[in-house]
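Sequence, please.
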């Protein structure tokens, strides 16, 4: 049995950090930031907001969207690069806040994290269905929650003009359930990583601020997203022409433009919202999916390609056939 998304939710901090604000903080300009990144503003978590509180709000919204209660959920998977603390996990905080009665754990794959979490949930659902079928029971089970949540502005040096312009805070969540359509749900996926590239984007041990080799990240990101997306499409027996909606990780509009050009997916079939949120890492894909659904771009039957890349260096892509609401 496949996995399908039945509910989506988001949580966005109220505070905006605009390019005009950044002009007063560092030596930069709105025109330069927009030209180089496509970002015009990003959100900043309030002092009492954390990756856990944002993740809780996004998950609650996804539950409401799916018409479910916390008692309905069988597992919580949280993707975050900015946990509340080293341990315990951010997931258990979200579990407690929501009143869930299930297992909960974190996934750390940076900006690829939401796709990693989605594929992990799909695998566990498939195993659960197989075990039930083998014992003579009915396939199925409780739906899962997959959350991407970040407070990246807390690990970005506000005096570093090369990084403080890029990152923002926010959360997105998805309720995932067993697919009821024979050709629906998660059709294929591709995950990968190259640990030799950790120095390209990291918070070094014992340090506070994120460091990034921007030009090299850009070059490698374009290549791995093209390769990973192509692999996922091939596994699904599809081509770029079959994709109705492409939802890439929202890091840089020039990366998105380059990827779309090389893959052969036009921008009018691509979701771009980084102009308002910046790079929200593991939250960016669920945020973009939720906006696309709200805008009426996901009504049922659409082939959706999602793809992320991030620190590690990690990458992840998946192809889904969107199922209509029951």
């Amino acid at each position: 049995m496949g996995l399908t998304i039945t509910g989506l939710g988001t949580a966005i901090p109220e505070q905006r950090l605009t390019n005009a604000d950044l002009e007063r903080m560092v030596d930069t300009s709105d025109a330069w930031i927009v030209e180089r990144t496509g970002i015009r503003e990003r959100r900043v978590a309030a002092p009492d907001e954390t990756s856990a509180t944002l993740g809780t709000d996004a998950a609650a919204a996804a539950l409401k969207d799916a018409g479910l209660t916390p008692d309905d959920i069988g597992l919580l998977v949280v993707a975050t690069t900015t946990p509340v603390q080293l341990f315990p996990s951010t997931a258990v905080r979200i579990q407690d806040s929501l009143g869930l009665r299930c297992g909960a754990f974190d996934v750390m794959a940076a900006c690829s994290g939401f796709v990693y979490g989605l594929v992990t949930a799909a695998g566990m659902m498939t195993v659960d269905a197989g075990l039930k079928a083998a014992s003579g029971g009915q396939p199925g089970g409780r739906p899962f929650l997959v959350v991407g949540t970040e407070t990246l502005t807390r690990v970005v040096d506000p005096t570093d003009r090369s990084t403080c312009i890029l990152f923002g805070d926010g959360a997105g969540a998805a309720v995932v359930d067993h697919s009821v359509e024979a050709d629906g749900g998660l059709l294929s996926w591709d995950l990968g990583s190259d640990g030799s590239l950790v120095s390209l984007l990291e918070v070094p041990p014992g340090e506070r601020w994120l460091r990034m080799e921007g030009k090299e990240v850009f070059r490698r990101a374009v290549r791995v997203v093209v390769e990973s997306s192509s692999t996922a499409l091939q596994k699904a027996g599809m081509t770029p022409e079959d994709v109705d909606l492409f939802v890439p990780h929202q890091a840089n509009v020039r990366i998105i433009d380059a990827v779309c050009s090389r893959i052969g997916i036009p921008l009018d079939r691509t979701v771009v919202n980084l102009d308002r949120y910046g790079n929200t890492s593991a939250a960016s894909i669920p945020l973009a999916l939720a906006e696309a659904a709200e805008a009426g771009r996901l009504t049922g039957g659409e082939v959706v390609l999602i793809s992320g890349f991030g620190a590690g260096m990690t990458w992840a892509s998946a192809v889904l056939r969107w199922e209509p609401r029951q």
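The radius of gyration is 19 Å.
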